[in-house]
Amino acid sequence: MARYIGSVCRLCRRENLKMFLKGDRCYSEKCAFDRRGYAPGQHGQRRMRKVSDYGVQLREKQKVKRMYGLLENQFHGLFRRAERQKGVTGTNLLVLLERRMDNVIYRLGFAGSRTQARHLVRHRHFTVNGKKMNIPSYLVRMGDVIEVREKSRNVAVFKDAMGTVVRRGIGSWLELDKEAFRGTMRAFPAREELTMPIQEQLIVELYSK
């Protein structure tokens, strides 16, 4: 499968938003966004040009796509699925993004970033309802129990990542048992609980053209 292999710090600078794509490093003085808070490239510091409505919509879509670590086909596929569901399309899209296995692992604090979570899922470190899971795009359902496999619990990365969850906090739709390395999706997140700076209506407008 295709994947982005460039510098993720450039993505934060391009979107002018700290998206915490590198876990602990984003909280340190080494964060490139804090040190160079302007767009990447030789013209990054030039005066900003006026952006069209289409440009604003495109940037919003790119920002959300990069925040969750998806490529265009994956993101577009989730949008079409959200469009077919009942309710508000934009909210449906955000809920589907939050339900992805790699995102839930990140939200529970088992990984310092979504990229790291994706890597851990692919290497079969987790189970869902007692069954091994290695699909980062799996959509976690209400009531699903996610656990770190017993033989993986001594891996240093899990102990290190659990420290970062204190800074991020855990959404009320999730329940974490640190001692048992277990998390449960109690409910789907409500829109007001997703506090990230996202204007999903712009994405809906973009794809509706």
Question: Can you tell me about this structure?
Answer:
This protein has 209 residues and is α+β, with helices and mostly antiparallel strands. The protein has two domains: 8-97 and 197-207, Ribosomal protein S4/S9, N-terminal domain (Ribosomal Protein S4 Delta 41, Chain A, domain 1); 98-191, Roll (Structural Genomics Hypothetical 15.5 Kd Protein In mrcA-pckA Intergenic Region, Chain A). The chain is 43% helix and 9% strand. The chain contains nine helices and five strands. The protein has helices at 8-15, 32-35, 53-67, 72-84, 89-99, 101-108, 114-122, 156-168, 200-207, and strands spanning 126-128, 131-133, 145-148, 174-177, 182-185. It has a five-stranded antiparallel β-sheet with strand order 2-1-3-5-4, covered by helices on one side. A hairpin with a 4-residue loop joins strand 4 and strand 5 (182-185). Helix 3 packs across helix 9, helix 4 crosses helix 5 and helix 6 (101-108) crosses helix 7. The protein is globular and about 55 Å long.
